[in-house]
Structures are given as C-alpha cells and as structure tokens.
Amino acid sequence: MKILSIIGARPQFIKCAPLFRAIRKEHEEILVHTGQHYDPEMSYIFFNELQIPEPDYNLGVGSSIHGEQTGKMLIEIEKIFLKEKPDLVLVYGDTNSTLAGALTASKLHLKVAHVEAGLRSYDRTMPEEINRVLTDHVSDLLFCPTETAVLNLKKEGITRGVYNVGDVMLDSLKYNIKVAERKATTLEDMGLSSKEYLVATVHRASNTDSLKNLSSIVNAFCDVDIPIIFPVHPRTEKYLKHYGLWDKLCEKVKVIPPLGYLEMLKLMLTQRRSLRTPEGFRRKHTYLRCPA
Ligand code: UD1
C-alpha cells in the first residue's frame, strides 16, 4: 500500500517516529513536511534525534495567520496528492497541518487515517479543537489513544473505522527514554542537579497572546522559590517581549531556546515532582478533559 503521511509541527514529528518504522516494514511511505515549524530547533532537531527519514516533500509553508497558513498547505498538498495518488493519507494530532492534510484528501476522495483521533477539549476557541473535530469527521480510520476518545467520537455519531490503539506518544516515550537518559545534557550544561528544578512550557495562543494570562503565568513563575527551566517557544518569546515581561521573567527564570525531544524528556523525567501550586497559578486550560 502507498501511504502518504503529513507532518509539520513538533508534536507530529514525535508521533510519527514510532509509526514510520512499522509502516516501512510492509508499505511504501511518502513523507510530506508542510514546513509549519521550520526553525532548526523546532524541526531539524526532531528529525535528527528521532532518526526520522528526510521528507520526500517540504512545502516550506512557514508561519502566518491561520487561514493563510492552512490555505497555502491545501494548495501545495493537493498537487502532491494528484501526483502521488496514495492509497491512504495519514495525519497526526490536531495542528493546522493535520486539518490541511485531511481536508485535501477528503476533497479528492482519498482514504484518511487519523492518529490521535477523538480527543476533545470542548473549547471551540482553541484552533486545535476545530482541527480535531473536522479531521475526525472526514476520516475513514480513526486511531484513538483511549476509551474516552472512542466515547467522544460516539457522541458525535462516529463509530465506523474507530479503533482504540493506545497512545502513540507513550510509544515514542518508551522508545526514547533510555536514549534520553544517556544522551541529554541540558541539566549538566546549566550546572543544576537532578530534582532541584521545575520545567515550564507555555505556547498555547490563549496563554501567550493575552497580556492578562501571560502576566499571570509570569507572576506565578516569579513566586516559585526553586529554579524554573523554561525552554521558550518563539511565539511566547515574541509576546513576552511585546508585553514588556521578558526582562522580569529572565531575572527569575532560566530561559533557554526550545529543546528537542530527548532533552525535554530528560528534564521532565528528573524534575522535582511536588510543589505547592503557587498563588494565582491558573488551571483554567486543563487540556483534553471531557465535561461531566
Ligand atoms: C502549533 C500547533 C499546536 C502545537 C504546537 C507545538 C496549530 C494551530 N497549533 O502551535 O497545536 O501544540 O504547534 O509547538 O497548528 N514560529 C517560529 N519558528 C517556527 C515555528 C513558529 O518562529 O519554526 C513562530 C511564528 O511567529 C509563528 C508562531 O511561532 O507565528 C506560532 O507558530 P504556529 O505553528 O502557527 O503555532 P504553534 O503555537 O507553534
């Protein structure tokens, strides 16, 4: 079978890593990178660490507002589908690259498989929620990570082609955990010892783009009395600087460039586990929880 896989952003590089090995044992795979993430530390480092093959196509779409970014992907992906005529299009997760792959395929009546189907936050202001819902509704095969995801789909009337296959992120983690322990050096490079720090990651638009929410996060970080390591996403850096919060943050927090998968994994494995939730720390955006 000829399978065409679409990836484009960090989480998709991680999700595709365990699958490409399995797919290529029995099938032909064409790998398409939309170029949604393009800085070396947002893209190349993941391909290198996870030994993902060089993409057959890189669309170089880059950053822009959602409609423009997704639209550029649709135009370029369609050309590739028409040329390659795949038997199955494989999309991962919930980014704009996911939706572009699924939508283009369904318009051309190509079969679509969605890895990480059925996840819902039930917050339609999140671009990812729209991407998830629309992708699931045009998919023929829906590979769910949990039984909750299967039930979420059932509530939307999707029962055909649905499989609970487990969490591909967990597969990736299990595959790489030993490698991360052996190879990652960020902690040592920073002169910190195990469990004496916390790791922070912030990049959702709802957290970064609003002054109120971003200030609240920065204030919470400043209340914590042990070191915080904060690999900062370019979007977050842009808004921290825009809102004048950058200097305040850098005084208290160890701000570093985005990390690859292995370094991030190692930091999370060895970070301190318990901490009183700081005053003002908002748990509003708890991710992927089903309403009662
Ligand atoms: C995207 C996904 C999100 C995922 C995240 C992982 C969507 C809607 N969101 O969010 O679900 O969790 O990736 O990181 O698809 N930028 C750079 N260099 C890059 C990439 C981005 O500087 O290589 C900057 C640009 O200013 C860009 C901004 O980051 O406008 C946001 O990037 P984008 O890919 O649009 O969304 P993410 O926030 O990364």
Automatic annotation (TrEMBL):
<dbReference type="InterPro" id="IPR003331">
    <property type="entry name" value="UDP_GlcNAc_Epimerase_2_dom"/>
</dbReference>
<feature type="domain" description="UDP-N-acetylglucosamine 2-epimerase">
    <location>
        <begin position="25"/>
        <end position="268"/>
    </location>
</feature>
<dbReference type="GO" id="GO:0008761">
    <property type="term" value="F:UDP-N-acetylglucosamine 2-epimerase activity"/>
</dbReference>
<keyword id="KW-0413">Isomerase</keyword>
<dbReference type="InterPro" id="IPR029767">
    <property type="entry name" value="WecB-like"/>
</dbReference>
<dbReference type="Pfam" id="PF02350">
    <property type="entry name" value="Epimerase_2"/>
</dbReference>
<protein>
    <submittedName>
        <fullName>UDP-N-acetylglucosamine 2-epimerase</fullName>
        <ecNumber>5.1.3.14</ecNumber>
    </submittedName>
</protein>
